[in-house]
Fold:
Amino acid sequence: METVRERGTLRAKIRLSLILGTALLALAVIAGTAWARAEPIGAAGSTYTGGSGGLTPTFTMDQGDRPSFSDGGANQHNVTARGNGPDGKAFFSTPTLNGGQSATVNGTQYLTAGTYTFFCTIHPTEMQATLVVTGNGTPQARPTATLALRTKTISKALKKGLLISVSASTQISGATLTAKLGKSTIGKTTTSLASGAQNKTLKLTKAGKSKLSGKATGKATAKVTVTADIPFGSPATAKAKLK
Ligand SMILES: [Cu+2]
Structure:
């Protein structure tokens, strides 16, 4: 019995080392004009494989730059910053790419001078690297938004949804608006914001409506909070009491 189990373990170990070996052979490089300006492609340290010998290659860019990431291997890879920005998500990232694909890294344009570590979520221990942002250049301002809830009554909210006026510092795609009554979400939508002032209507869910009409029959005011989650920026909030 024990011999069989040991053999099984050994076989599993061999299989694991084969998988690891393949992962290490996968070659993914960071390239692109912005990055290449500071660091020629193919120069020592510009290969983002890590692992072998415990290397964590370093890439350098100026503030405001958006480098691109090319998956030069056969496997899937991505770039994901370890640290989180004000939106609670990775400072910068790419989608997971197939071999031969490339993408612009999103989020680096907001970074201020400093050192940021990143990794591949598919090969978290083998593929690690460091991004150094120099003091040169100017970082892009992080997007911001302010909100105000225009709807004043529960009956209007039930009929038409919540009317929210939003002011955005820049064009923002993928902003998520969430309305809550206490701790319950009563409406949620993801939308694009134009730069400047605009109105958005947030429809309530069926469950949200019944929660809110429960308040209406009890003749109490309903405290509604609307939050806008802004990719790469700080969330914005508005509170109002509906009568
Ligand atoms: Cu990878």
